[in-house]
What we know:
The protein is of the alpha+beta class.
Amino acid sequence: MPLPAKRDLLRLAESKDLVIIENDVYGDLHHEGSRPLTLKSFDRSGRVMYVNSCSKSMVPSLRIGWLAAGRWKERVSKIKSATSSSVNEVAQLALTEYLAQGSYLPNLRKLRQKLKTRKDEYLAAIRPALSQAIPLKDMTGGFSYWLPVPEQVDVDQFSAEVLNRWPILVEGNTPYLDIVNKGICLNTSVQLTRESRQALLELCVHLRKLHQNKN
Length: 215
């Protein structure tokens, strides 16, 4: 989200007395330049609950996250104690030791570069297949890219068709894509194989035709 939009969103929340839960798990995975500022950076009234985790930038199986709850800190602490009083202290200590050794930032820089390289590979592959039917913006961070499905397309039927024609893209432990709510969420962190690249190109050609025929 562009910085002016973040400020506008926070001003809107203040004017309507709304709470914002900011999920920043991809914040450390920007591809170039400086880390994007968070909504929490501008929060002077404590209305932003800031959520983050190391599962995207370090080890998914570590399952450690944290929350800056703002004005609701005490209430959130009570709910946490009532619903899940225990924590994995061994995992927390292991993470603390890892961070203290100074290895996190060098490895994070390598991960960012790898994600950028993979992103470039994906976009270079799908741009010609989609042609002008779906204008593709650059991807400035993370590893999730959104491709819209036309409104008139039945998502359940479309999902079944993808599973039937290109199962390599949706099956397995690391799927290349998920189909949710009128769109395709493309996972660009997975290394493309010859088979998956061909399947992705065929899917993009099919998606292009759907957009061209939507009227």
